[in-house]
Design brief:
By secondary structure, this protein is mainly alpha-helical. The chain has helices spanning 3-18, 22-29, 33-40, 49-59, 63-67, 70-73. Helix 2 (22-29) crosses helix 3 (33-40) and helix 2 packs across helix 4. The longest helix is centred in the N-terminal third of the chain and has 16 residues, at 3-18.
Amino acid sequence: MDICAAIRDRILRLCSERDVTINKLATLSALPPSSIKNILYGKSRDPKIRTLKKLCDGLEISLAEFFQSPEFDALEPEIQ
């Protein structure tokens, strides 16, 4: 799994756990729905930390909580 897939999977899992749609997440995060969809559909290959912070704020979690998950624990090293 790469970092983009981990971010996508984490967002989808958090939304599912909270019963939040992508459009509702956009409203909660003060982001355009297209920004979130670009991350989820792989058009945004390197989401900015500011965008992730807004998503976390909308979900009422910290960035640390976002990254403390099996999706990120399973990542392979980028530099070999």
